[in-house]
């Protein structure tokens, strides 16, 4: 019952956020809104992490199961994919490497700027 | 008589539900046995079910009448990413500026590079919209693709390939690009390869694992913000 009760709480948050999302004038998925809402609920101490522990663990540990049915519907697009397979893989590979490079470079740059700022007499936050 | 029985079995939604969970479990078992990122449970289960449907002639609609109950958990699964973010709050506060700058820049790089490459190869708009958020965890990118008119199944495949690729190549990238800082490593892996990549980051160390986990949520949030700006209707 505990898992079902926790699921019901989660579903309630999601249902409300779906409603809010439908009213927004830009695409902001209800599910992402639920993520933000749930974070705020935790931060405001309305719920503890342990209140949803079993169900959130279940969902987080098996997240990829949820994507099996939508992935299977690729069966309806096999012809399209066959015709662009090479481009598809090149796009994925190139943009993945670029994203990786930019993320690591920006993080390293910010670290370097932060340490230089501190050395030059800035306020230390540590 | 046998045909009547098979018809009845396929007519209950429990069929698609069982089939999905059974093959996913087999996929998890194979991944645990081999320990290889290419033995991805989603890939194994997805390909096995597609083959099964092709061989038996069962339609996707019949399968999905039960499988859609699994898809129902997509939204709650996205919501509980908040648990990961909240549990890592102290790490986020410690590295707030590098995390914000790194994930914001990476999310933009991913979208711009996918957009440019799709244009370069002359892909249709529908395909471009299906690939645009492909570095972001499916939990966040799938609703974005659905809201903007892309094909969600193609996105799921692209996200999966991205994750597997990142998980396989991350150790080589770290060496090749001479990344020494564990935070930079974790954030790069989380931004490029979401959940599947993060499993590789966890193997490198606790800081890499935690920051990769944070990067999944943060780069997802930035992508959603870019979307709400680029595709606003008002």
Keywords:
heterodimer, A: 126 residues, mainly alpha, 2 domains, 73% helix, 0% strand, B: 234 residues
What does this protein structure show overall?
The complex is a heterodimer of chains A (126) and B (234). The model of chain A has no long low-confidence stretch (mean pLDDT 90). Chain A has helices at 2-23, 30-43, 53-61, 68-72, 78-119. Chain A is flat and about 50 Å long. Chain A is mainly alpha-helical and 126 residues long. Chain A starts with a helix and ends in a 7-residue tail after the last helix. Chain A is 73% helix and 0% strand. In chain A, helix 1 (2-23) packs across helix 2 and helix 1 packs across helix 3 (53-61). Chain B is mostly helical and 234 residues long. Chain B is built from 13 helices and no strands. In chain B, helix 11 crosses helix 12 (182-204). The N and C termini of chain B lie far apart (59 Å). The chains are: A mainly alpha (126), B mainly alpha (234). At the A-B interface, helix 1, helix 2, helix 3, helix 4 and helix 5 of A face helix 2, helix 3, helix 4, helix 5 and helix 6 of B.
* Total domain count of chain A: 2
Task: Give the percentage of residues in beta strands of chain B.
Answer: under 5%
- Based on helices, strands and strand pairing, what is the structural class of chain B? mainly alpha
What general form of chain B does the structure show? Answer: globular
**Shape type of chain A:** flat
Count of individual helical segments of chain A = 5
Number of domains of chain B: 2
What gap, in angstroms, lies between the N and C termini of chain B?
A: 59 Å
Number of strands of chain B: 0
Order of helices and strands of chain A: HHHHH
Uncertain stretches of 5 or more adjacent residues of chain B: none
């Amino acid at each position: 019952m505990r898992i079902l009760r926790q699921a019901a709480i989660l579903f309630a948050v999601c249902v409300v956020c779906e409603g809010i999302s439908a009213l927004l004038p830009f695409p902001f998925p209800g599910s992402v809104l639920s993520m933000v809402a749930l974070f705020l609920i935790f931060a405001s101490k309305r719920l503890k992490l342990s209140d949803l522990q079993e169900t959130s663990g279940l969902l987080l540990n098996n997240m990829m199961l949820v994507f099996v049915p939508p992935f299977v519907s690729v069966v309806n697009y096999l012809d399209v994919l066959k015709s662009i397979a090479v481009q598809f893989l090149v796009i994925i590979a190139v943009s993945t490497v670029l994203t990786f490079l930019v993320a690591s470079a920006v993080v390293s740059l910010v670290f370097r700027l932060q340490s230089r700022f501190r050395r030059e007499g800035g306020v230390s936050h540590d | 008589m046998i045909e009547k029985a098979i018809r009845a079995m396929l007519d209950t939604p429990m069929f698609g539900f069982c089939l999905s969970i059974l093959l996913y479990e087999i996929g998890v078992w194979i991944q645990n046995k081999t320990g290889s990122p290419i033995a991805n449970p989603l890939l194994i289960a997805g390909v096995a079910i597609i083959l099964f449907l092709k061989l038996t002639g069962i339609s996707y609609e019949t399968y999905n009448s039960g499988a859609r109950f699994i898809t129902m958990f997509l939204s709650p699964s996205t919501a509980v990413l908040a648990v990961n973010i909240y549990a890592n709050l102290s790490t986020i506060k410690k590295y707030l500026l590098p995390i914000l700058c790194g994930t914001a820049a990476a999310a933009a790089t991913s979208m711009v590079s996918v957009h440019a490459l799709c244009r370069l190869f002359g892909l249709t708009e529908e395909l471009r919209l299906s690939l645009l958020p492909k570095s972001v965890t499916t939990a966040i990118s799938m609703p974005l693709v659905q809201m903007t008119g892309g094909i969600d199944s193609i996105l799921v495949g692209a996200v999966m390939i991205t994750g597997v690729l990142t998980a396989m190549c991350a150790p080589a990238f770290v060496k090749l690009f001479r990344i020494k800082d564990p935070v930079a490593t974790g954030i790069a892996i989380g931004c490029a390869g979401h959940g599947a990549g993060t499993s590789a980051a966890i193997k490198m160390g606790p800081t890499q694992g935690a920051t990769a986990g944070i990067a999944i949520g943060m780069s997802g949030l930035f992508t959603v913000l870019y979307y709400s700006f680029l595709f606003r209707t008002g």
